[in-house]
Design goal:
- The chain is an alpha/beta fold.
- The chain has one domain: Aromatic compound dioxygenase (Protocatechuate 3,4-Dioxygenase, subunit A, Sandwich).
- 29% of the residues lie in helices and 21% in strands.
- The strands form three sheets. Strands 1-5-4-9-10-11 form a six-stranded mixed sheet, with no helix packed on it. Strands 2, 3, 6, 12, 13 and 14 form a six-stranded mixed sheet that branches. The chain has a two-stranded antiparallel ribbon with strand order 7-8.
- A hairpin with a 6-residue loop joins strand 12 and strand 13.
- Pfam families: Dioxygenase_C, Dioxygenase_N.
- Keywords: Dioxygenase, Iron, Metal-binding, Oxidoreductase.
């Protein structure tokens, strides 16, 4: 499946609305006020990188005009969150990870939505009566860096369905499908019943996908589960979990997959149901 059928306009518009609501600011440590010296350093370096690409590759006026048209198309389709999250966020995450403790994280991506179903463990994510795909259980425990179970921990989880659709960003799945915020028990334990997700491509009918294909790069993301693991008085962990054997591991368009984040679900003996256990460690700090 590809998200081409979902349409860049729909996915881009919803990603833009989600970005405007803002989650990145909740993960930052800054004051929110611009430092002129910092702006000059970062923006200046970015512009010099583009100028160097023009000089080194002898960019023509025809190519420069095509670039301007592409920038306008990204704006018109609302794909800036998609482009930035796919091609730049992983570098921001690497910088942040240098000063972070606890479990390994990765990028947020553009498909998080606020206001999802509030559930209590053991929980079943909202889904259709005939939801396709392999039944899956994700279970584990949330602890502090010293091993203390974290009472009040929550697991905000979202992922595609068996065909690679995200609810809220495609017309096919109903609102809230395979999304929820699960409250752990008093020992920080959680058990979440869902369906195993599928790999997918970024939207191919929009400028981000068209650029990716023009460059000959793979537009695929390996199957994965998104998570925001939180607890009072602790830094929220942004993570994704991948699956062994996925053909797109190591060739993720978003460069977000990591060996430490790979699951190997095992049969439970209940039909074709599988289960993976994964614990999370949160460092004390900003909620």
């Amino acid at each position: 499946m590809t998200t081409t059928e979902a349409g860049a306009a729909l996915a881009g518009a919803n990603a833009t609305d989600s970005a405007r609501a803002g989650l990145s600011n909740l993960r930052g440590q800054g004051t929110g006020q611009a430092d002129p010296a910092r702006v000059s350093a970062v923006v200046g370096a970015a512009l010099e990188g583009i100028r160097a690409a023009i000089r080194d590759n002898k960019v023509t006026y025809e190519e420069f005009d095509a670039f301007k048209q592409w920038l306008i198309a990204v704006s018109d389709t609302g794909e800036w969150p998609l482009f930035l999250d796919v091609y730049l966020e992983f570098e921001v995450e690497k910088v942040a990870a240098q000063t972070q403790q606890g479990s390994v994280g990765t990028i947020l991506g553009p498909f998080w939505l606020d206001g999802q179903a509030q559930l209590t463990t053991p929980a079943t994510l909202p889904m259709r009566d005939d939801e396709p795909g392999t039944p899956m259980i994700l279970a584990g425990q949330v602890t502090d860096t010293d091993g203390t179970p974290l009472r009040g921990a929550t697991v905000d989880i979202w992922h595609t369905d068996d065909e690679g659709w995200y609810s809220g960003f495609a017309s096919k799945p109903p609102a809230g499908n395979l999304r929820g915020v699960v409250a752990c028990d008093d020992e920080g334990r959680f058990e979440i019943h869902t369906r195993k997700p599928a790999p997918y491509t970024i939207p191919l009918d929009g400028p981000t996908g068209q650029m990716t294909q023009a460059a000959g790069w793979s537009p695929w993301r390996p199957a994965h589960i998104h998570l925001l693991v939180a607890a009072p008085g602790h830094r929220t962990l942004t993570s994704q979990l991948f699956f062994t054997g996925d053909p797109y591991l190591g060739n993720d368009v978003a460069s977000a997959d990591k060996p430490e984040l790979t699951l190997d679900p095992q049969p439970t003996g209940n039909g074709d149901e599988v289960r993976s256990d994964r614990d999370f460690v949160l460092e004390p700090g900003q909620d």
